[in-house]
Write a structure and sequence with these properties.
By secondary structure, the chain is an alpha+beta fold. The protein has two domains: 1-67, no CATH class; 68-177, no CATH class. The chain has six helices and four strands; from the N terminus they run βββαβααααα. Strands 3-2-1-4 form a four-stranded mixed sheet. α3 packs across α4. The protein starts with a strand and ends with a helix. 5% of the residues are buried. The model has no long low-confidence stretch (mean pLDDT 79).
Amino acid sequence: MPIIKRYSNRKLYDPLTRRYVTLEEVGWMVQNGEDVSVIDHESGTDITAVTLTQVIFDQEKRLGGHLPQAFFSRLIRTRDASMSALRRGMGSLLDPDSHFNQEIQRRLDILHADGSLADDEHTRLAALLLDQRFEFVEDEDSSPAPVEQLQALQAQLQHMENELEAIKRQKQSGIPS
């Protein structure tokens, strides 16, 4: 795994190749399946998640904005709650069957609870709609890379949530950051 060092002048240095690298090059490494780690040279702090976020924003700026503005606006407005929502959303992409089955079951349960479905109808519809024949089947031509990328993003989100919690604890205890 390449370990990139970030210096106080914001330059990124790859000790393996003994040269400075750009955010774009870090993005290429990740796209090529490398698990990159970025460490602050002075403090030794892992800043991989922050750096990969910068890679995403750099790509957005360079490529003309493929992600909708509403996504970024909501991310900023809802702060750490949006990180949890984003993790849940990515979870549904990683395991679509589970997500869809849970949603079907949730809706059937609501209809049953409000009396719109009788017990036998509820059981029958659940059996039909949750039948294994409807499970997601991956195309032979599809690449496993998107799932791996989503898992990496999920790990980064977890790291960011942990950092946010640490910042909250510091603020609550009155320790300056």
